Amino acid sequence: MAQPKLLTTEEISKHNTADDLWIVIDGQVWDMTEFAPEHPGGIGIILQYAGHDASERYNEIHAPSLLTSTLSSSKLKGTLDTSTVSPTWSKPPPQTNPKVQLQHEKPPLDTIISLHDFEAVAQKTLAPKTWAFYSSAATDLVTHLANRSFFDRIWWRPRVLRDVRVRDTRSKIMGLGVEMPLFVSPAALAKLVHPEGEKAIARAVGRKGVVQCGEKVSTNASYSITDIVSALPSSPPQLEPPIFFQLYVSKSRPASESLLRTVHNLGIRTLFLTVDSPLAGKREADERVRMEENQSAPMMTGSKDKPVNDKRGGGLGRITGSFIDESLNWDDLKWLRRHWKGKVVLKGIMRAEDAKRAADAGMDGVVLSNHGGRNLDTAPPAILILLDLQRNAPE
Hints:
Oligomer: single chain
Strand order of the largest sheet: 1-5-4-3-2
Largest sheet: 5 strands, mixed
Structural class: alpha/beta
Helix content: 25-40%
Strand content: 5-15%
Distance between the termini: 64 Å
Number of helices: 16
Order of helices and strands: EHEEEHHHEHHHHEEEHEEHEHEHHHEHEH
């Protein structure tokens, strides 16, 4: 095999326009001219680094394998001749939103003992845009706040004088054995919080016997589903990986079909179809903080809509969700069944009539959800939906 061609910074710098665009990623020089206009994160961020090294910015968001799985080998022009690198050439371009110096460092993990502790630390240590994205909810936060307040109305009714020396929390979720009846819910772009993103979550749930959904891995994850499954602790090949896949259907159905094939080939057998988010909610805290126009996810394929700030603001949830098919309806479940041979769960049921219709359509389960109060404000809290189901469709 021929050695990759060594390219000087002088040569690389010549390719710095939209019509002739090279960038350096981890020492490799890639021709991005054809790909840049189709980049889910928009062409702007790639143009910022045209003719320069984009490794640091790329690795903040993307998995290392994304380039080789997305671009053909013909786009690899060579490798960077490091002997020609100068401080001027290495200097990153100016950022629209300069990184802030965090006022607080993360404390040792063993000092965090509750979810409230995690939330408090996140608010102090995450970048402002990241915190705004994860903490924001729709419009006046009515549903968001009701999710918590209604859950707090549920009381234990303890029995006493029972032998509790042996305790067993093991259970099954969609046929997967778990150490406790919980799953890690999906959250988009986890790499914004930690470089290992969803891969770190996969390793943790794999060790603890929790189903990741055994985190529910999302279409909007920072890493590809292949990378996430590869990060799981090794297990016998005949066992189903402790992962459910959450799907947002793309406007490009062939792209979703291709993704479903990849997921099934990895051994995943349960699909969570998102139905409570056909359009992004008005998450005001997220809109108020402008975003860097480079946010995308490796599984957000098939859309030509570009995440850019606009007059409405910089809502990361709205902007990166522009690939979602707003036309998805009950008739499309037949399409899904043709392309997915495993179990299907509708994630986002908000009333008893739809739960009944899901059962009649042969779905394997439903998740009562209002998308965390992040989409349609004044939608009912999930606990209230459960009461509706018990009263009006107990079967």
